Amino acid sequence: MASAEMQSQDRVASPRLSADRVREILIVDDHPLMCDALALTLKISFGLRNVRTARSLAAAQEQIRNQGAPDAVILDLNLPDARGAEGLVTLRRQIPDVPITMISADLENAMISAAMAAGAQGYISKSLGREALVDSLRRMWEGERVTPDSYQPEHAGEEDAARAELARRFATLTPQQMKILRLICQGKANKEISYELSIAEATVKTHITAIMSKINARRRTQAVLLANSVRLFEPA
Amino acid sequence: MASAEMQSQDRVASPRLSADRVREILIVDDHPLMCDALALTLKISFGLRNVRTARSLAAAQEQIRNQGAPDAVILDLNLPDARGAEGLVTLRRQIPDVPITMISADLENAMISAAMAAGAQGYISKSLGREALVDSLRRMWEGERVTPDSYQPEHAGEEDAARAELARRFATLTPQQMKILRLICQGKANKEISYELSIAEATVKTHITAIMSKINARRRTQAVLLANSVRLFEPA
DNA sequence: TGCGGCTACGACTTCGGTTGTATTGGCCGA
DNA sequence: TCGGCCAATACAACCGAAGTCGTAGCCGCA
């Protein structure tokens, strides 16, 4: 676990933003414990007195209507009433000028780029330590767009693309090959498969070789894992 | 959001257990903020002085070796070095008589039943409020097995009994066997495994034979499927 | 008629799994 | 404290299963 787990993205000139001007913040998270922990950390580290919290997107919106806009928002990515980037988009419509930091346990590349594309000021992991967290927030409130170290913007969607490519490869399997793969994914041996399909074991092996070459696997266990990764055959 | 989100499962007679006897607990979670929040809550609500924390399964194990066993454990389901039920199984080997509470944001039915089958004292959601959390823990420490309201063990008929039995079998795996099984479930060949663990391929094979005899599998692909069926190792 | 994809088979090589055995370290009772 | 014992780990030799390669029949189509 590194101490400063954040990388600088780009330092935009944002005259309106400054960590000093952040006096009141709003935390939107449905985990009460996490809310408390965040609030406490912020109070101590930034000397903030006004830390507001909300348990849902709807509650946050109403609170902003009633009590006015905060100087910054920390928004959980997985709220009961707004999973994903939806909550971010909604909130930004209401308070376009307030920096919104996304927070989540999820470090998937696709998720981060979606959030950043939707206008988040930054994205921090729930597994960050106190110091790194505080540092990241400070930088965000000074106008920097901050993403986790692990985030590779250029590879965004790459794993998704790989998944799609994999699915395409599975689509090239012939009917017989598909039958055989299904049986493989049930843990059957070649001999059993040959019996069920009434063909020679040698033939089964040939098909398996073809299958594995198509989906780029070397061992049959890998074939099983790949098939499961695209949910080729759903549970028995 | 209900206030008391827990349901009673069954009140087992457990003379050794009593909430009063819980004086020292260990929290295993890789989210520092969550750790703090939990620790603080417990200190306040139970008047506990000794709340130990660990950031990973390995750290927890070492701490237990060095400082002895705590009276109770709260274990995150998604640790960097042990996703899924694996961590629970491993810890229970080390401290079989200490009640272990699983905690996770994930409320999937299958996940919960996997954890309970693997011998957890209870399962609580990270989105629980303080009161409900404290109440649930107290009941667990008195011997009750507590699961979230949303959990429906109903389709936990025979199929779940089989699952529980399976989980118990996985729990008998030795550390080395567990390592090897994890690598098998990543699609690795025996030779690769032997290299990674710096042992002879022959040894790997011996362990595999032992593993398969314990979980009642004949082929390694079946071992992978069985491990996945109890969510022993969660996806990377 | 010839070409390419699907299916089928056998011979050969490599890998996976079984069995038998040795070594170590912890635990328990004499 | 010392054997004795068991569990865990380690290795090699053997054999059956898995996977590779070369080949062939059978379509449908140009």
From TrEMBL, chains A, B:
Highest taxon of the lineage: Bacteria
> InterPro entries of this UniProt entry?
CheY-like_superfamily (IPR011006), EvgA-like (IPR051015), NreC/VraR/RcsB-like_REC (IPR058245), Sig_transdc_resp-reg_C-effctor (IPR016032), Sig_transdc_resp-reg_receiver (IPR001789), Tscrpt_reg_LuxR_C (IPR000792)
Q: Name one Pfam family in it.
A: Response_reg
Q: Is Cell wall biogenesis/degradation included in the keywords of this UniProt record?
A: no
| Record-linked CDD domains | LuxR_C_like, REC_NarL-like
List residues, modification 4-aspartylphosphate: 76
What residue stretches are annotated with the HTH luxR-type domain? 166-231
Spell out the molecular function terms from Gene Ontology.
DNA binding
UniProtKB keywords: DNA-binding, Phosphoprotein
- Provide the Response regulatory domain boundaries: 24-141
GO biological process terms held by the UniProt record: phosphorelay signal transduction system; regulation of DNA-templated transcription
- Keyword DNA-binding, does the record have it? yes
Q: How is this protein named in the record?
A: Two component transcriptional regulator, LuxR family
